[in-house]
Specification:
Pfam families: ECH_1. This is Enoyl-CoA hydratase/isomerase family protein. This protein is of the alpha/beta class. The chain has one domain: 2-enoyl-CoA Hydratase, Chain A, domain 1, CATH 3.90.226. The chain has eight helices and eleven strands. Strand 2, helix 1 and strand 3 form a beta-alpha-beta unit. The radius of gyration is 18 Å and the shape is globular. 44% of the residues are buried.
Amino acid sequence: MSGGLRVAADRSTGVAVVTLDRPAKLNAIDTAMAGELRSCWGGLRFDDSVRAVVLTGAGERAFCTGIDRDTRVPQPRSPYMVDDPLLRVGPKANDLWKPVIAAVRGMVCGGAFYLLGESEFVVADTSATFFDPHTTYGMVSAYESVYMAHRMPCGEAARMALMGTAERISARRAYEVGLVSELTEAGGAVKAAVRCAEVIASYPPEGVQGTVRALWAAKEAARAQAFAQAPQLIALGNLPPERQAELFTGRRTEGHRVR
């Protein structure tokens, strides 16, 4: 697949590795990559030779840093309608019920939580750090916070969302609170995730996919109700784009705390 996404499938094991491949942009998602992700998940639905997926990011600096700041998405004036370009980038949003394991190194922030939120579990190496910059730049963390409130204790999700860029969660802390299910040495996340994926892919796929669907159903209703409020909260709470840009341009490049 061309552009910002690479897909490598091992037919002998039934595992596909999907790589966000914009390392110079910290694997931020632009409009083109968002489209590629939707096409990728749609294609994997029909590929019976792939029974489990590992999702990772290229390079050492970041798994994904959310939406590319250069991406411009026109918005309706109504507070009841917000077009979010990341709402359809995850596997579940595209009706893929094959298990997806996220393999993380480096920074994970903002819109990256759409992808982590729709993965079955997360494997991270010791370089991983997690933070949500929205509040720092005058933006509402809505969808991201909903996803993370379902993946970690609510107080931890709240602290991450409200502290913005002032604080980052270390890989060790993310493991302690359950956001990360396995912590590896530096550079070892993909290998560990593939090992898990190969085991899962060796099982009868009907039972695996039914289990994935059941796990998702356990939180689907609450998530849908929360998502229904997100467009209004974003429209009412976000600063104008030009003011957000000013805050982003004037951001501090040092001084954050890692815990």
